[in-house]
Each structure stands twice: as C-alpha cells, then as structure tokens.
Amino acid sequence: MNATRTAHEWSKDAFFSKAQRYAETMLEKDHSNWEFGFWSALTLEILVRASISNISPVLVADGKDWNNILYAVGTDPNQQKFSPKSADISDLLKRAENLFSSFTREMLNFSVAHINKRNSELHSGALPFEGVGSSSWLPIYYSVCKVLVGEIGETLESLLGNEVAKEAEFHIVALEDESAKSVKGTINAHKTIWGEKPDEERITLTKQAEILSTKHDGHRANCPACNSVALVQGGSTGAPKTTVKDDGITEKQTMLPSSFECVACGLKISGYSKLVACGLGNTYISTNHYDAIEYFEINIEEEMGNMMYEDNNDPF
User: Fold this and answer.
1) Among 34-38, 149-153, 157-161, 208-212, which is the least confidently predicted range?
2) Were both Cys, which of 4, 16, 67, 268 would link to 50 (CB 3.0–4.6 Å)?
3) What count of Cα atoms within 13 Å lies in the side-chain half-sphere of residue 35?
4) Helix boundaries (H) for the chain
5) Which residues on neighbouring strands pair with residue 242, listed in sequence order?
6) Is 135 helix (H, G, I), strand (E, B) or coil?
7) Each residue's pLDDT tens digit, 233-257
8) Could you give phi then psi for residue 74, rounded to 5 degrees?
C-alpha cells in the first residue's frame, strides 16, 4: 500500500489550511474581545507566508543558512541537529510589497503594526488588543486579507465563510468610500455651534442627552462634536450566540452600526462608511436575557390544559 503524501509544511496549501483554522478560532470571538484581535494577527501572518510560498517555498526560507533553502525544495539537509527556519515575518512583509502590486505601502504599514501587537501580546506584559475598537483596524484588515487570498487563487469566502465574507466586503467598501470623509466637516460645524452656546444651556442639554440616551434604544457613545452621551444604532450581523444557564438564557448578537444621533447638539450621521471615518463604526454587542418559557415561547395555559385533559384511561 502506498504511503499518503502530505504537503510540505512550507507549502501554500499547508499555510492556507492553517490560516483557515486560525480564522475559524478568530470568528468564534466577539469583535470587542481581545482574542478576536490576537487571532486575527496570527491569521494574517500565516496568510502572508501562504501568498509568498505560492510563488515558491524557497522565498519563505531564512536565507542566512542555505540548508533552509534545501529544506524548502524538499531535500533533507545533511547536517546534524538541523532545525528548519523560515524567514522573519518582517522580511516576508517587505517581500510581499515587492512581489504583489496590490499590496500597498498602507497595507504594509498596517500589517507590520498589527503583527507587532501580536508580538507584544506574547512577549511582554502589555495588553495591545484590549479595548481597541474594531472600526480602527477591521476594514483595512479585511482589505489586506482579500489581496493575499487573491494572490493564492483563493477568496474571502474560502477563508472566512460566505456570511462573514459578505460582512468583510461591506467593511472594505466603507474603507474605500472617499465621500465618507466629508463627515468630519459636519462634525466640526456642530462643534463650532456647540461652543457658541452659553454654558448653562450646554449643561442642560448634556443632562437631557444623558437621560434620553438609553441602552435599550442602541449603543451609547460620546458625541464627537460635543462629547455628550449619544446613541449609535445598527443591524445584526452574523448568528447570535446563545448561552444556557440555570437562571435563564442569554443571547448575544453582534451589531454593525448604521446611524448615530446626538440629541444634545443635533449631530446626525447615517451610513457605516461615515461612522468608520469618524471613529464611530465599532461593532457592539446587543445582549438579551430570557427565561426558558419566554425564549421557547411556551404557552403555559395551553400546556396546563393539555395536562388536565390527558387521557389516563388506557386499559391495563
């Protein structure tokens, strides 16, 4: 019987399979969870290696020792205690910029910074992914991923799944929407008008905004024009995550922002791309708690009626 031949560990297929595995773990986390950012960085690094290996595994090897090149072409080096070493990710990112015309300098700078956060997470006491809003990095992250999977003949669907790939395209379009940047002029105009109001009026309006902006109506955020409490509203994205405990059922749904309104200064912003442009595009979690009867929509009266009229007169 012929032995099964496995892919070289530096091959495009091996790298991409691992990237899919990391991406799956990443997508199990909420966008606000630090692990989402951490696993995204691991996925990105492996995607970079896959794209370069697609040209040749030799380009992934650390060239300081020619035995690594031998190993990359499938030859076992005749060297004692040999341990294959691939090139540092910083070198591979520079190679990616030179090899792929669609991998821009902006993408390079982002990738270096994002992967450095992963290094900081692993090798220091810092918490680089803690409290980082997804809108500040997720759109360009997906844009980089789209370029890299395209270089190996794959798609965002094959990396992320159909549903998340659609969401990723939405982020990418928002990133490329130049008209969205005009929202900063709107914010500055409201900031100027707000600054011209008497102090007493601003205090009153801020207090009113605090009362009117309830979590039940959306996600609370500080207004970029007047710094009052305001509301971001959005629509669900992805499947909800349900947790069953003794005290009931908790359902958490990731929400993608679509609009913003501040009742204090009157600032209104519509459209995800504009919200991303002004730092209000972070996804947020809508959490609902149910008891079992409410969640499963059990009609107690009907169930009790069925029990009362149950026929227990079957013959022995």
Assistant:
1) 208-212
2) 16
3) 9
4) 12-26, 34-53, 66-72, 89-99, 105-123, 138-151, 156-160, 162-176, 183-196, 199-212, 272-277, 292-295, 300-308
5) 251
6) helix
7) 988 877 788 888 777 888 888 888 8
8) 95, 15
- Tallying the residues shown for the chain, one arrives at 316
What are the contacts of 130-136 at 24+ separation with CB within 8 A?
130/34, 131/34, 132/34, 132/37, 133/279, 133/281, 133/282, 134/31, 134/32, 134/36, 134/281, 134/282, 134/283, 135/257, 135/275, 135/276, 135/279, 135/280, 135/281, 135/282, 135/283, 136/279, 136/282
Residue indicated by tokens 């990391």: 22
pLDDT in tens, 124-153: 999 999 988 888 899 999 999 999 999 999
Position 100: which residue type? Answer: F
Is the CB of residue 291 less than 8 Å from the CB of residue 248? Answer: yes
Locate 194 and state its tokens.
């707000």
**Residue written as token pair 């990396």:** 159
Question: Of the candidates 155, 4, 18, 158, which has an alpha carbon nearest to the alpha carbon of residue 86?
Answer: 18
Among 160, 142, 135, 123, residue whose Cα is nearest residue 23: 160
pLDDT for position 303: 52
Which pair of structure tokens corresponds to residue 225? 């024009």
